[in-house]
Predict the 3D structure of the following.
Amino acid sequence: MAHTLPALPYGYDALEPHIDTMTMQIHHGKHHQAYVDNLNKALAGTDGENKSLEELMANISSYPVAVRNNGGGHYNHSLFWSVLGTGNSTPSGKLADAINATFGSFDALKEKMNTAGATRFGSGWAWLSVSGGNLVVSSTPNQDNPLMDVAEVKGTPILGIDVWEHAYYLKYQNKRPDYLSAIWNVINWREVEKRYEAAL
Ligand code: MN3
């Protein structure tokens, strides 16, 4: 079954001024669409055609690099759109407790994620994942993610932050740390909490 581009759960302008409309239009409509199209091309006529994205990620080392790059791109961006949103929320409930117990405070988690994103050389992602019931922060290069069998730090990602230049360059140019501090205004913590409960 062919993979398809998921619709954004909000408008292209919904994350203004933190993430600008044109960045969202190009990021979702062009970049993510290209990952979907190229994944479908790479899988055509192979056994991978009948595998879920999660199944592909778990055995990604046995697939061609085009599946790793574009399958990762499709998975990562689908997660990314879902954990963004308006509402200026903060973590609550069990997830807030786990963040405080693991990192000391919500601010300390943000700092750790920002450092993971800012120090990732070139393109990649910063992640908050659940691994063996614990929260863990990591980063991956390119379109890799913690579900992949090749990941240095494995787990179930519940929050991912795209640090490719295409995610921020129109508004923030070379200032990746400015983008990273702004993005905390548009995280949908209710969705992250849902993913946390499901991953436990
Ligand atoms: Mn991207």
Summary: Residues 27, 31, 77, 162, 164, 166-167 surround manganese (III) ion (CB under 6 Å). The CA atoms of residues 141 and 200 lie 26 Å apart. Helices lie at 21-43, 53-58, 65-83, 93-103, 106-118, 169-172, 176-182, 189-199. The longest strand covers residues 124-131.
